[in-house]
Structure formats: C-alpha cells, structure tokens
Specification:
Number of helices: 24
Helix content: 40-55%
CATH architecture of the largest domain: 2-Layer Sandwich
Strand content: 5-15%
CATH topology of the largest domain: Nucleotidyltransferase, domain 5
Distance between the termini: 137 Å
Number of strands: 16
Radius of gyration: 43 Å
Pfam family, one: DDE_Tnp_4
Low-confidence stretches: 13-18
Shape: elongated
Protein name: DDE Tnp4 domain-containing protein
Structural class: alpha+beta
CATH superfamily of the largest domain: Ribonuclease H-like superfamily/Ribonuclease H
Cofactor: a divalent metal cation
Keywords: Metal-binding
Number of domains: 4
InterPro entries: HARBI1_dom (IPR027806)
Length: about 650
C-alpha cells in the first residue's frame, strides 16, 4: 500500500515537471515561479480567470507569477477605489457625475428579446471618451494577443500588396496618372464605368469591374504585353487575359454602339452639330442642308503570318508591309460617324473597291443614311467609286490628277485641289488621334487580329464621347475664309503668264545667297498671322521652318536673283531629292506679297501657296528679323556617316626626292 502511494506521488511529480505550462500564457515555468490553482485558497483566483479570460482551470493546472500579478493588481485597484459621497449641493455642480443606478432597465428589441442593460452616466458618452487622457505609455501584451496583432497586420499588408495600381479608388491615382495610363481623366473614367452594368463583368477575388476596364484601357493606351501588365497589376497573366476579354465584351455591348455607327447619329444631327461652316461654304448650299463626310482608310500594321494566303492578301504594295485597313467615315469637325472593317490590303481591296463593297452590301444601312446631293470628300484612291456614288446621287470631291505628259497641275486644278485638301485634312488628324492608343500604332500581334476592329471602334467611340472636336470653326471666320477661297479659285495666275511670256525662267543673271538682313532689303516685314493668311493654312508654315533649318546649315541653300523691280527669283533644292531644284518667283510691294509662282507640281495655284514659296516668304519677311534663340538639335550629329571623305595624314606620305 505504501509503495502504491509513493508511486502515485512520483507520477504526479513527473507529470508536473513535464506539463508545467501556465494556463494563461502557455509558457513553461520553473517550479519556483508557478503556483497551482487547486484548493480552496485559490478559489478567488480561479473565479478571476474564468470571468476575465474565459478559462476553466483543472486541479492539475498552474499559473505563472507574471500572470498571477494581474489578479493582485485587479484586487488592489478595487480596494483603492474611493467612495463617492453625494449631497444636495452636488446637484447644482455641472461637472458632477452621479454613480450608476443599481437597478436594471428593461430594453426590448426586437420582440421577445429582452436586453438587461444597466443605465449609464454621462461619463460614458462619446464626447467623454474622446476627452480621456492617456495614463500609461506602455501596454502589456501576452503572446496570444501579440500573435493576433501580427496576423492582422500581415493580412492587411497582403491585401494591399495585390493592388499596385488601384482603379477601385479614384483617390489612389491623380488625374495625370489616369490620363497617362488610360487616356481618360478620372471623371471620364467614372462616366465610362457607369455605362457598364455590374452584371456585365463578374467580380472576382483579384479584380473588380473597374479594374477590368482600367486594365483594358491601359492595354490599348500603352500597347504593353500581358506579361508586363501582369507585373504592373500584380496578378497572373491568365487573369489579365480574362480581364481584357471581359472588358472588351462589355464595352462592345454597352458603350461602343451608343457613340459610333450610322445608327447612333442621324443625318440631321451631323448637319447641325458636326459640320464645319467652312465645309458648307465650299461644298454645301445656301440652305445648309447638305451632309458632308470625309472618307479614308487607316492602317493597322500586323505581323507576318505563317498562313501564306493571308500573308499575300495583307501585303501592301504601297507601304511594303503587312497591314489591314478599317474604313473611316468622319465629319468635317473630326467626329467619327462609323468605322467599318477591317479589310485586306491586296490589289482587290483598294480604297475604291472597299467603299463599293460597303455601298453594295448596304452595311449599317448606309444607303438609307445618305440623301441626294450629299457630299463625300475623298482622296485620289477612290477614283473608281465616283460612278457608283453618282448613281446614288452623292457628289464626290477629290483632288485633281496630272494630265498626260504634264508635270504641273493647271491653275484651275491646283485651286480646286486646295479646296479639297482644306477640308480633307481632318480625316488624317483623326487617324493620328486614334493612334495615340499605342496598341493600334504598333505592329499588332496576329493573335489580336480577330479583335482589331473592336479595338478601333472602341477607341473611336472614346474620341467621340470624351474628346473635343478637332476644329469646329467659327461661323463668321469660316464664312469669310470660304468666300475668299472660292473667289481666288476663279482667278488666273498672272505671274505665271508673265514668266512664260517674258521667258524669265531662262534669263541669266547674278545669283546671290540669302545670308542675312542685307539680302532683298526692300522685302516687306510680315507677322506669322499675315503669312497664314497667304498660305491659307498652317501646314506650309510648319514646312517653312524645316526648309529654313536646312538653309541655316547650308549657306548655299537659298539663292536669289533680282529680275525686276520688286520681283525676285529664288532657286532652292527639293526636300525629297537633293539633285532636283525648283525655281520660284515672288512679286511684292512695301507692305504685302502680291503674286507668286513655283515650278513644282502644285506651284501654279492661287488659293494658298506651295511649301517652297511659303518658306522663302517666311524667312525673308519674318524669321531673319527675329532674335535668334537656341537652335534645334541636329539628329544627324548623333549618327555616323560612312560617306564622309577620309582624312589623309601628310606625315604618312613618303618625301619627294
């Protein structure tokens, strides 16, 4: 019997040594730094643990000295709590807070549920809690509380780590960042997302509807691959692909049809809201009831394909590259009415045949949209469509062709061509605007060819909705400019006739370099606005600056000959072929330029000037009188030229005997 009792006590001792963990902090404790929880003397301690820490101690459990001190501190705080004495004088004290009432108030909410909540004093109001001052600067944490805090911080960090670029919070990116990434401002992005219902794009753990739209716009704007986008947005490549696919289908259904296509805008709306007064003056009628559209194809370059038939069908003999062509229908203000295609680019799919196919198949009900005597402005590539368009009663405005065995357009053809180009330039600017979304400007991977049309139409819809008109024009200014151009188009070039009659092109004389203010001193001084009134546009003025830069680099670029009173002849090289030169004549007086003529292809016209004449006028009348600033960098200085003459060192040559 004695042996059994000793053995039982030894087992308890071993068990205590092995499992002597604190019931509260679960730390192993040494025998001298722990206390058992059994017995009547530790009843209050067990009640304290059950009430404050929700643990139920057993007879074998122990508690460490550190945790036991919490019990003694709690008991000491209750002993030191002062007793509050009240009297009648405290009722008038505004800072006096009476003790809580002992009875419990019965609050029921909802039915059959009673909440026995003690009534509280005003010291527990929100304002009172905010006025509490900190007494202790150090807080005690046990291991479990510290681990819980670390887990919470880690979870929050991991959640935020997945959102490097966050489109769900507009405040995470400023307006410039939104414009750089998507091509839209924050307000425009919010409006675009409002067009897409929540059911159109399913939210997942890694992306929302706004994130899908943002990724899709970033893809179009930057042209980056899915791998790079996966790195930027910190999601997998497959998630990027699914996000782009979901966004593409959603905008195709809910956004693009509202802002693109012949169905989305009426003919009357185009006439009233999207037609420039200059175009109506040049090609419309006095009632302003003519719809005027500019038609042209744009290029989307693609990769070479292993499908040989497709590669042959997409190879352009004009660009010497593989490409596909969407057909653009644009108003004279730059508003895109429709984008049809894309089409192949072989000889059977030139601009004229594509337009003929669109009208014959009545795509988007285009024949019902146009009315009799409406006008389409096209380039020379649509010459085979003129007869078909005339069958539908549509007028065609197109630049003139050179006649057989002629090297220069006649005065009449040059003038009418300038009227056309004055209106047709807008479609080229529209093509440049949609190429600001770099995916359409780069070489498109063949895997994206099925979606090239959708991408082009979506970007066009964005331009219609969120971009201002390229040039809406001013009604008064456009009317004056159009009337001036129509009046000048009926004139003859008197200087051209004088050059021919007096044989000025073969008359010899002394050529003088234009090298400063001492050349042609009586040439009038003009402003850039005066020069634009002569050229009737800004394109020739831009080219004039490039011609002048080449003249400043080569002093012999401009050569001038005086062939009469206030009549000069200038000889200058072509910008395309260095071996080819052009001769031009300009007459002037003390305050203005009177007439001009150039031997280039378009130099006989009166409506505006060619770039050669504008460059001479710009240099003599404006540039040489300005204070010269820093010159533009010459890019050829950073590229080697193998045609430079070899330098010979005389020291290496043998001495003559």
């Amino acid at each position: 019997m004695v042996e059994f009792v000793l053995r039982e006590r030894m087992d308890k001792i071993r068990k205590g040594r092995k499992d002597s963990k604190c019931i509260l902090c679960e730390k192993r404790t040494k025998p001298g730094k722990r206390r058992p929880l059994c017995g009547e003397t530790n009843k209050n301690l067990r009640n304290f643990l059950s009430k404050n820490f929700l643990v139920s101690p057993n007879d074998d459990d122990v508690i460490c000295d550190t945790c036991r001190r919490k019990y003694y501190r709690e008991g000491q705080a209750q002993v030191n709590t002062p007793t509050v004495l009240t009297n009648d004088t405290n009722a008038n004290d505004p800072d006096f807070m009476p003790p809580s009432a002992p009875k419990r108030a019965k609050l029921s909410s909802p039915l059959s549920i009673s909440l026995p909540i003690s009534s509280t004093i005003k010291g527990f109001t929100k304002e009172a809690n905010e006025d509490i001052t900190s007494v202790y600067t150090v807080s005690d944490f046990n291991r479990s509380g510290l681990l819980e805090l670390i887990d919470t911080i880690r979870e929050h960090a991991l959640k935020n780590k997945n959102a490097r670029i966050d489109f769900d919070k507009s405040s995470s990116l400023n307006d410039t960042d939104f414009r750089n990434l998507t091509g839209l401002t924050i307000t425009d992005f919010e409006d675009l997302c409002s067009h897409i219902p929540n059911s159109a794009i399913r939210d997942t753990r890694v992306r929302s509807m706004r994130t899908c739209i943002g990724i899709f716009l970033t893809k179009l704007r930057s042209g980056m691959s899915n791998k790079i986008l996966a790195t930027l947005f910190n999601i997998s490549k497959d998630s990027i692909r699914k996000a782009i696919s979901s966004a593409r289908d959603a905008v195709k259904q809910h956004f693009t049809p509202k802002y693109l296509g012949f169905d989305h805008v009426s003919r009357e709306s185009v006439i009233q809201n999207h037609t420039r007064p200059l175009a109506q003056t040049l090609f419309g009628d006095i009632t302003n009831t003519t719809a005027i559209l500019v038609i042209d194809g744009t290029y989307i370059y693609i990769q070479k394909s292993g499908q040989f038939k497709f590669q042959r069908s997409t190879y352009s003999m004009h660009k010497f590259r593989n490409l596909i062509k969407p057909m653009m229908f644009v108003t004279t203000t730059g508003y895109i009415v429709s984008v049809i295609g894309p089409y192949l680019c072989n000889s059977k799919n030139n601009d004229a045949k594509i337009l003929n196919s669109i009208f014959k198949n009545n795509l988007e009900k285009i024949k019902e949209w146009f009315d009799k005597d409406d006008v389409v402005v096209v380039d020379r590539g649509f010459r085979d469509s003129i007869d078909l368009l005339e069958e539908f009663g549509i007028q065609t405005k197109m630049p003139s062709f050179l006649k057989r065995n002629e090297k220069q357009l006649s005065v009449e053809d040059g003038n009418t061509t300038r009227l056309v180009t004055k209106v047709r330039w807008v479609v080229e600017s529209v093509n440049g605007r949609i190429k600001q979304w770099r995916l359409l400007d780069k070489v498109l991977p063949n895997s994206l060819i099925p979606y090239a049309g959708e991408y082009t139409r979506f970007v066009s819809a964005i331009c219609n909705k969120y971009r201002p008109p390229l040039n809406a024009g001013n009604e008064t200014d456009d009317l004056l400019l159009g009337t001036k151009m129509l009046h000048m188009s009926k004139k003859k070039n008197e200087l051209m006739e004088r050059v021919s009659n007096e044989n000025l092109h073969s008359r010899s004389g002394r050529w003088q370099k234009i090298d400063g203010n001492d050349s042609v001193e009586d040439f009038p001084k003009l402003s850039e606005e005066d020069i634009r009134d002569i050229t009737l546009g800004v394109y020739q003025v831009k080219l004039a600056k490039s011609y002048t830069e080449e003249h400043l680099e080569n002093d012999d670029y401009y050569e001038v000959m005086q062939q009469g009173h206030q009549l000069i002849r200038v000889r200058m090289a072509s910008r395309h072929t260095s071996s080819k030169t052009h001769n031009l004549w300009i007459t002037y007086d003390d305050c203005c330029i009177k007439t001009w003529y150039c031997t280039c292809k378009a130099g006989a016209r009166i409506v505006g000037t060619c770039s050669h004449i504008s460059s001479v006028i710009w240099f003599l009348s404006f540039y040489r009188h300005q204070t010269k600033g820093n010159q533009a960098k010459q890019w050829k200085d950073y590229v080697h030229d193998a045609n430079q003459p070899e330098v010979v060192d005389d020291s290496d040559s043998e001495p003559e005997e």
